[in-house]
Amino acid sequence: NTEPGAIKVPFNATPPVSRIDPKKGQTIKIMYTGSQTLPSDRESVFWFNVLEVPPKANKNENSAAQNTLQLAFRTRIKLFYRPQGLGDLAGEAPAKLTWRMKHEQGKSVVTVNNPTPYFVSFNSIELESTGKKYIVDGQMAAPLTETSFTLKTATTISSGKINYSFINDFGGIINATASLQ
């Protein structure tokens, strides 16, 4: 929600504006400028915003063409910067996550520890305990940190397993299971 001129990011997108003809595509090249020093021991994440605006309806056409609904779409894409020294071991990061439960202010909180230098993006997280399943709202586990997700239901859970799916580097969704510690 920040004004475009106020955003300072170390990337340039080329071309910044383009026209895309029907049934065609456009490649956008994103280049790291080096204007900001980013951590060399872990990934960094940014949001790449794309605004798709349809052409204005032609007023010279018949009245049926003028009664159209046109929508503009704003798409947000995660953009990960991975320093060269990290290598290609991001696919192994989800297996190294450790999960545990804690209780804060009467609510159950699922905590995930990510000891790797890679972000793990979740598609879904589900806690299974004593035959019941609870949906956990979680999006990403940041590198080298512990991230907490609060359960919506106010229940006390001490054991169980986590069924989760994560998004790999190619956009594929991989299912995994882990036990609570």
From TrEMBL:
<dbReference type="InterPro" id="IPR016147">
    <property type="entry name" value="Pili_assmbl_chaperone_N"/>
</dbReference>
<keyword id="KW-0393">Immunoglobulin domain</keyword>
<dbReference type="GO" id="GO:0071555">
    <property type="term" value="P:cell wall organization"/>
</dbReference>
<dbReference type="InterPro" id="IPR001829">
    <property type="entry name" value="Pili_assmbl_chaperone_bac"/>
</dbReference>
<dbReference type="InterPro" id="IPR036316">
    <property type="entry name" value="Pili_assmbl_chap_C_dom_sf"/>
</dbReference>
<dbReference type="InterPro" id="IPR018046">
    <property type="entry name" value="Pili_assmbl_chaperone_CS"/>
</dbReference>
<dbReference type="InterPro" id="IPR013783">
    <property type="entry name" value="Ig-like_fold"/>
</dbReference>
<keyword id="KW-1029">Fimbrium biogenesis</keyword>
<dbReference type="InterPro" id="IPR008962">
    <property type="entry name" value="PapD-like_sf"/>
</dbReference>
<dbReference type="Pfam" id="PF00345">
    <property type="entry name" value="PapD_N"/>
</dbReference>
<keyword id="KW-0143">Chaperone</keyword>
<comment type="similarity">
    <text>Belongs to the periplasmic pilus chaperone family.</text>
</comment>
<dbReference type="Pfam" id="PF02753">
    <property type="entry name" value="PapD_C"/>
</dbReference>
<feature type="domain" description="Pili assembly chaperone C-terminal">
    <location>
        <begin position="112"/>
        <end position="174"/>
    </location>
</feature>
<dbReference type="GO" id="GO:0030288">
    <property type="term" value="C:outer membrane-bounded periplasmic space"/>
</dbReference>
<dbReference type="InterPro" id="IPR016148">
    <property type="entry name" value="Pili_assmbl_chaperone_C"/>
</dbReference>
<keyword id="KW-0574">Periplasm</keyword>
<dbReference type="InterPro" id="IPR050643">
    <property type="entry name" value="Periplasmic_pilus_chap"/>
</dbReference>
<feature type="domain" description="Pili assembly chaperone N-terminal">
    <location>
        <begin position="4"/>
        <end position="86"/>
    </location>
</feature>
<keyword id="KW-0732">Signal</keyword>
<protein>
    <submittedName>
        <fullName>Fimbrial chaperone</fullName>
    </submittedName>
</protein>
